[in-house]
Design goal:
Blueprint: H1 2-16, E1 36-41, E2 59-76, E3 79-86, E4 95-98, E5 102-109, E6 120-121, E7 141-147, E8 152-157, H2 163-168, E9 172-178, E10 188-197, E11 207-209, H3 213-218, E12 223-226, E13 239-242, E14 246-255, E15 260-265, E16 269-273, E17 281-284, E18 286-289, E19 293-300, E20 305-311, H4 315-319, E21 323-329, H5 341-350, H6 352-355, H7 369-388, H8 413-421, E22 423-424, E23 427-429, E24 432-434, E25 437-438, H9 445-456, H10 468-475
Parallel strand pairs: 1-2, 2-5, 3-11, 4-9, 10-14, 13-21
Antiparallel strand pairs: 2-3, 5-7, 6-8, 8-9, 10-12, 14-19, 15-18, 15-20, 16-17, 16-19, 20-21, 22-25, 23-24
Helix pairs in contact: 7-9, 8-10, 9-10
Bound molecules: heme C and copper (II) ion.
Heme C is lined by residues 351-352, 383-384, 386-388, 399-402, 405, 407-408, 415, 418-419, 423-425, 427, 429, 434-439, 441, 451, 455.
């Protein structure tokens, strides 16, 4: 058994590093007529930014300089991790070249790093996608060249043993090979890349987290995030667009394990290039992005809304971090959408109140505090819990805590107002800033008085009681 395992590994690494002389001749894409003119140094960008479109009509020599940096960074507020990065952030820097370009790739390994690394770009036809030529020790630089034969959006990643661990620590990014004829101009282009992370502590456990090999083998991540961090695309970091603009998202998935069901709540992809290839699909709700794969999605922003980017394997979104926002500002268009802009959109697809409707059974006589607590607990579980969590502690960067919240400590009627009217804009709760949207909840006066009473008397809060008449007053 052991022998078989070692033999398999040996074959795999031998292939990656080019120990076998494989010859594979094909003329199909040979760029015979392509003359390389001049040279350029590629502009690389950190997510969510994308380098400018290529307007050049000829092939050139593109010099790409990328440095591997091992670095402790935040995975979430208060949670840090030793990320291994291409360019100092997760995902790695976005590379943009043109079909037919001769790419001269320079890989540097920062002298302060502890380990050797390399790079396998899926855009490369050649041994290990470049991995064989770029095995680089700390403080060194390697170089190799390739011609970008096939247009498309490709993942690149480290392929140094143990490969899974290098990828799990954040070593991936995207390279776009624009087709010769270029891409249709759009108003906004953004770079979004998903990844799953395996930490010694559970989701949200503070402090420096170690990589957990056991969880990685079981494919049970604690974090599933966009652009390397919980909250990287929400609040002040949200993507932005105006009504009428067309947005193109270059979506990647570094994995290492999970496949993403990429979806934007509140809009439909007019165009999708599935798997980052050349096929064009239209009118898509959710597109699969394989681990080690990509997709390009395009959509027109028709009405003002906060669009929510999710992996629609939805527990990952509400419990592991794969949530982003695209704020679309501009004029309402009631023909396309009317109603209360932000909260309705949220409720219609992502909100908890829609998925778990409550049938109001109106009591005939006033409830005692004890009865309110019982009813309130049930309302909390079916309505509030999806966001504020069972323990009332919320989710850092996304949903504020109700446990010991200083937001309403001095005035319990504030809780009623938040529930009846919803809440948006920046709020500070226990010293942490939140800038999300809480939809107003369609609950009866009785249900609200119960759930608010429940919140005031749970999660270590200091008590209190409210009545349906208080709710009626607050509604006005
Ligand atoms: C869809 C997610 C969601 C649901 C469901 C939800 N909330 Fe919220 N809640 C939020 C968000 C997001 C904020 C912060 C809004 C902001 O940033 O302006 C918030 C803020 C609050 C606040 C003020 C800040 C604080 O932490 O004290 C209270 C109180 C509150 N919610 C109570 C409730 C109660 C009670 C329910 C159930 C009846 C509920 N929420 C349901 C998302 C939600
Ligand atoms: Cu590596």
């Amino acid at each position: 058994m052991k022998n078989i395992k070692y033999t398999l590994n040996a074959v795999l690494y031998a292939l990656l590093f080019g120990l076998f002389a494989v010859s594979c001749n094909s003329d199909k894409n040979t760029p015979a007529s392509d003359e390389i003119k001049g040279e350029e140094t590629a502009v690389l960008t950190h997510a969510p930014n994308v380098p400018p479109p290529i307007t050049r009509k000829f092939s050139t020599k593109m010099i790409v300089n990328l440095e591997v940096i091992e670095k402790e960074m935040e995975m979430m507020d208060g949670v840090t991790y030793n990320f291994w990065t291409f360019g100092g952030a997760v995902p790695g820097m976005f590379i943009r070249v043109r079909e037919g370009d001769l790419v001269e790739f320079h890989l540097k390994n920062n002298p302060n790093n502890k380990l050797p690394h390399n790079i396998d770009l899926h855009a490369v036809s050649g041994q290990g996608g470049g991995a064989a030529a770029t095995f680089t020790a700390p403080g060194h630089e390697t170089k190799f060249s390739f011609t970008a034969l096939n247009p498309g959006l490709y993942i690149y990643h480290c392929a140094t043993a143990p490969v899974g661990m290098h990828i799990a620590n954040g070593m991936y990014g995207l390279i776009l090979v624009e087709p010769k004829e270029g891409m249709k101009p759009v108003d906004k282009e953004y770079y979004v890349c998903q990844g799953d992370f395996y930490t010694s502590g559970k989701y949200g456990e503070s402090g420096l987290q170690q990589f957990d090999m056991d969880k990685a083998l079981k494919e049970q991540p604690d974090y599933v995030v966009f652009n390397g961090k919980v909250g990287s695309l929400i609040g002040a970091n949200s993507l932005k667009a105006k009504v009428g603009e067309t947005v193109r998202l270059f979506v990647g998935n570094g994995g290492p394990n999970l496949v993403s069901s990429f979806h934007v709540i509140g809009d439909i992809f007019d165009n999708v290039y599935p798997e980052g290839g050349s096929t064009l699909n239209h009118n898509v709700q959710t597109t699969l992005v394989p681990a080690g794969g990509s997709a390009i999605t395009e959509f027109k922003c028709d009405v003002p809304a906060t669009l929510i980017l999710v992996d629609h394997s939805i527990f990952r979104t509400f419990n592991k971090g794969s949530l982003g926002m695209l704020k679309v500002e501009g004029e309402l268009n009631k023909k396309i959408y009317s109603g209360q802009q932000d909260d309705r959109i949220y409720q219609s697809e992502g909100g908890a109140s829609q998925t778990m409707p409550i049938t109001p059974t109106e009591p005939t006589k006033p409830l005692s505090k004890e009865e309110k607590m019982t009813q309130g607990k049930a309302v909390y579980a079916s309505t509030c819990q999806a966001c504020h969590q069972a323990d009332g502690k919320g989710i850092p960067n996304a949903f504020p805590p109700l446990a010991g919240s200083d937001y309403f400590a001095s005035d319990p009627t504030k809780v009623i107002r938040v529930v009846t009217h919803g809440l948006q804009g920046e709020v500070t709760v226990n010293g942490k800033k939140f800038n999300g949207i809480m939809p107003k909840q369609s609950l009866s006066d009785n249900q609200i008085s119960s759930v608010v009473t429940y919140v005031l008397n749970s999660f270590g809060n200091k008590g209190g009681e409210v009545n349906p008449s208080d709710v009626e007053k607050a509604r006005k």
